[in-house]
UniProtKB/TrEMBL annotation:
UniProt xrefs under PANTHER family: POLYGALACTURONAN_RHAMNOGALACTURONAN TRANSPORT SYSTEM PERMEASE PROTEIN YTEP (PTHR43496:SF1), PROTEIN LPLB (PTHR43496)
InterPro entries xref list: MetI-like, MetI-like_sf
Protein name, per record: Protein lplB
Entry keywords, A to Z: Membrane, Transmembrane, Transmembrane helix, Transport
Lineage, uppermost ranks: Bacteria, Bacillati, Bacillota, Bacilli, Bacillales
CDD domains: TM_PBP2
Residue ranges annotated for the ABC transmembrane type-1 domain, each copy included: 78-293
Main location group: membrane
Family of this protein: Belongs to the binding-protein-dependent transport system permease family.
Pfam (any one): BPD_transp_1
Amino acid sequence: MKTDIKPKKKSALLKYWDLYLLMIPGILFFLIYKYVPMWGIVIAFQDYSVFAGVAGSEWVGFKHFARMFQADEFYSIFSNTLLISLYKLFWGFPAPIIVALMLNEIRHMLYKRSVQTIIYMPHFLSWVIVGGIMINLLNPSTGIVNTFIQFLGFEPIYFIADDSWFRTVLVASDLWKSVGWGTILYLAALAGIDPQLYEAAKVDGANKWQQTWHITLPSLLPTIVILFILQMGNILEVGFEQVFILLNPLVYNVGDVFETYVYRVGVTQGQFSYTTAVGLFKSVIALIMVVLANKIAKKLGQNGLW
């Protein structure tokens, strides 16, 4: 009498061992540079001393958090960071989508690739170089922008030192540097749209705007939602290098943000516990924003991060 003996299924670890092997470098990166340093947040609850170390420093509970909320400059820095971040989100988030849609309509491949290369290039420049370019372009005496303003008969503007223009400079320079790179994901998503959908729309008499509204944008929506949720995690991240290079004492009231404040108070003045509390506050806000954005996306019928 024959008995059917089914072979045991291999575990996922053995079956896909090569894929798990490829994951190891990425996992190690996050463990070493993201999770292990999280141990350092304990000093936010201590009067940390470099000489005593974490184990020997005195525990003070929420003392530094209370100081943070009582500090006059905290609310100014918080509003500066939030406003600049929202400006960048308002202008910078839709810009790659618009550029990707325009590039997708170009049929001359040589011209299309040339434009892509030109707008990608600023991404590979460091903020030191970009900052130098902006300072020279906007120089009130020799900059090409002010030369043109004077040619039109107006007085030159010291953009970098004018508190009414400084945030505009930050947003514009960030947009110029990042918009080209941001189009890559959207171009990849556009390449995955079934061409038969457009052919069917043409048969039904849909023009280009109708095809974009009813086919292209709905197809891009999952990618847009995921990137928007991730962007919410950076709502209080303005970018240290950019602000630090362009910031000067004349525009501290509009340009001083969490990153520069933490550097100035924490690194140069040695107040490590206090600035760690500030950093932990930022992280908690980022976590809340990501969870809320993900929950809203799920309620609207979109796929969230989890």
